[in-house]
Design goal:
Layout lengths: L1 E2 L1 H20 L5 H20 L7 E5 L4 E2 L3 E10 L5 E9 L9 E6 L2 E10 L4 E13 L5 E16 L2 H11 L20 E7 L11 H7 L3 E6 L5 E7 L7 E2 L8 E2 H18 L3 E7 L3 E8 L4 H10 L10 H11 L5 E6 L8 H10 L4 E7 L2 H8 L5 H26 L3 E5 L4 H15 L3
Parallel strand pairs: 3-9, 12-15, 12-17, 17-18, 18-19
Antiparallel strand pairs: 1-9, 2-4, 4-7, 5-6, 5-8, 8-9, 10-11, 13-14, 15-16
Helix pairs in contact: 1-2, 3-5, 5-6, 5-11, 7-8, 9-10
């Protein structure tokens, strides 16, 4: 319970007036006593007529599972056993893993049970908690504000946003290139896996003629090919210190960690690859290998991959590319498409990363995925207005130059690079995958 702004202003102005009257005319000192008596009576009346917030029962309803970066609806249920309607101001206390919930003002609670909804957005995976809700109500005279903290302690697991992965995958399934390796391709010269024999017709590539079968059946027969299936894809996710730092999209007020954008892009690639018949595995590392899953196939395997991805924790340790990538090379002996999802700052910190990527690229086909920082791009492009902004622009420009130097060096090694803002890496990664699938490059 605390005095309101109205009470402070009223008592301050009334007290000043009473003191002024007593100072000008000492015979008017009873006005000072009358003011104190009136103030005390007003406060006591407001307290006596005010709401009894201790009688309210508060609970919260949440989905059984929350998705990182995706807003969901939570509902507060308040039971009012009294006979009067209350006008409350609500403030929800959450753990630091949630975006701050705006204060809910002028919530009317009639006698009985009432519900109010608010949006909730998880910023990190793991287990997040709605700790308590603060109830505040102004007394009938407007002099006292009654407050109560209702402990809730409701915890829910926060997992990768697989719903947005499936929605994005459904949009991509209409692409004609996505059908390579699923349906028999009718384009002559596409694919390397034998499908069937058909009789030669003018215009067919003579290199597809099967001479043994033609001699046996005494007519020209051609081999019809299709795109190879059952290829292997390994997702190598860096979960080190730099990947645990937040990076924001242009339209997002509160940024998510780089790691969550990387996991989303990796799961989208896994969903599509499993759909077209490829095998997908997952490895995560920081200063050592934390999780590993051998390449699996079938659409049902996506559930196990998403569960494993949800267990990748945010780390404060520096990434050890030597240990992580060499362990990947040791376990993955068959040639595969390796997608490395990581990030770097400058050429010095990227030196060991480039060296180990070059070794891995001798056996496997690599796609290197790095997330650009929109704030760094903004600092490097905007016109400086003072000396501080000039220094920031120079540093940002230097970091962008170092980044471009590393990307060019990787491309000269034959490594495909995706260096894009967070909202674009999923699309760019899928484009590279479909192009490689079309060309049968792995």
């Amino acid at each position: 319970m605390r005095p309101t702004r109205l009470a402070v202003l009223a008592f301050a102005s009334g007290g000043a007036l009473a003191v002024l009257c007593a100072a000008v005319q000492p015979a008017l000192w009873p006005f000072w006593l009358a003011f104190l008596f009136l103030a005390a009576i007003s406060l006591m009346a407001d307290w006596a007529l005010g709401p009894r917030l201790a009688r309210l029962r508060v609970s919260v309803e949440l989905p059984e599972q929350l998705l990182v970066g995706s807003e969901c609806e939570a509902r507060l249920r308040i039971e009012n056993p009294g006979r009067r309607q209350l006008r409350l101001r609500l403030h929800v206390d959450t753990s630091g893993d949630f975006e701050q919930v705006p204060e809910l003002a002028d919530v009317r609670i009639p006698p009985g049970t009432a519900e109010t909804a608010f949006g909730l957005r998880a910023l990190r995976r793991g287990r997040s908690t709605i700790e308590a809700v603060w109830l505040e109500c102004i007394g009938p005279l407007g002099l006292l504000a009654f407050r109560r903290r209702c402990f809730l302690g409701v915890t829910r697991p926060v997992t990768p946003d697989v719903h947005s992965v499936s929605r994005a995958a459904i949009q991509l399934f209409s692409s004609r290139n996505l059908q390579h390796g699923v349906r028999v391709e009718r384009y002559r010269g596409d694919g390397s896996e034998f499908d069937c024999l058909r009789e030669y017709e003018p215009g067919f590539d003579i290199r597809t003629i099967d001479w043994k079968a033609s001699a046996r059946l005494a007519r020209l027969l051609c081999r019809e090919l299709r795109a190879e299936r059952n290829r292997q894809i390994m997702l190598a996710v860096d979960s080190g210190r730099l990947m645990s730092e937040p990076v924001g999209e242009a339209r997002t007020a509160t940024p998510l960690p780089r790691l969550d954008y990387a996991i989303h892009a990796g799961l989208l690639l896994a969903y599509i690859s499993l759909h077209v018949g490829d095998r997908v595995g997952l490895l995560s590392f920081d200063d050592r290998v934390r999780h590993y899953c051998t390449p699996v196939r079938g659409q049902a395997a996506f559930g196990s991959l998403s569960r494993l991805a949800s267990q990748i924790d945010y780390s404060s340790r520096e990434s050890n590319f030597t240990l992580g990538l060499m362990e990947l090379a040791r376990r993955q002996s068959r040639r595969a498409l390796v997608v490395v999802l990581t990030d770097f700052v400058d050429t010095i910190s990227a030196e060991l990363m480039v060296e180990n990527l070059s070794r891995l690229a001798r056996r496997h086909l690599l796609i290197f995925v790095a997330l650009q920082d929109p704030l760094l791009l903004l600092e490097g492009k905007q016109r400086p207005e003072d000396l501080v902004q000039l220094h920031r622009a120079v540093v940002a420009h230097r970091l962008l130059q170092d980044r471009e130097m590393v990307i060019r060096r990787l491309r000269r090694m034959g490594i495909l690079c995706v260096d894009a803002p967070p909202e674009q890496i999923s699309t760019r990664l899928i484009d590279h995958y479909l192009n490689l699938k079309r060309k049968e490059a792995f």
